[in-house]
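fyi for ur records
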Amino acid sequence: YPNPTNGIFNIDFKRVNTIAIFNTMGINVYSEKNENETSGIKTIDLSSFANGIYIIRVSNEKGVSNHKLILNK
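which gave:
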């Protein structure tokens, strides 16, 4: 949240191992391993990226979840 975003958004998570963000071409533009935190809020800044649609991929030991993010500065 928020979505659409102006570049800075938050991911509220429980038990996340990795966060990856892909553009519409499928290129990984951001990734982070989250080895120490079991829950919380992660703030990510994409304000230097171009406007458009991005896919956020969040994974843990139970599986993978994909979410659409709209960047509109």
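The two ends are 15 Å apart (CA to CA). thats all i got for now
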